[in-house]
Amino acid sequence: MLAPLMRIRVTINIAIGVVVLRFQIGVHGPEDLYFGVWVAIELTVAILAYALIMYMWRRYCGMFKN
Q1: In Å, what is the CA distance from 7 to each residue of 12, 14, 21, 48?
Q2: What is the pLDDT of residue 7?
Q3: How far apart are CA 65 and CA 59, in angstroms?
Q4: CB distance 38 to 32 below 8 Å
Q5: C-alpha dihedral over 19, 25, 31, 33, to 10 degrees?
Q6: Average pLDDT over residues 23-39
Q7: 27: Cβ–Cβ under 8 A, 6 or more apart, which residues?
Q8: What is the 3-state secondary structure (H, E, C) of the chain?
Q9: Of 33, 24, 3, 25, which Cα lies nearest the Cα of 11?
């Protein structure tokens, strides 16, 4: 009986912490956070794609060095 109440209390505490943190960093709504998250995802994908392309290019160029 006590376990569901503890989960609710923990969930409420996490939600309150997220709201407080959100206001401390200056994000007042989800649309304010959308651009930053999207840029971070795009940057991460671009870096991974660049690393993969460079790896493949080095292997391709290495095939002809004899």
Answers
A1: 9, 11, 21, 38
A2: 65
A3: 10
A4: no
A5: -110
A6: 80
A7: 33
A8: CHHHHHHHHHHHHHHHHHHHHHHHCCCCCHHHHHHHHHHHHHHHHHHHHHHHHHHHHHHHHHCCCC
A9: 3
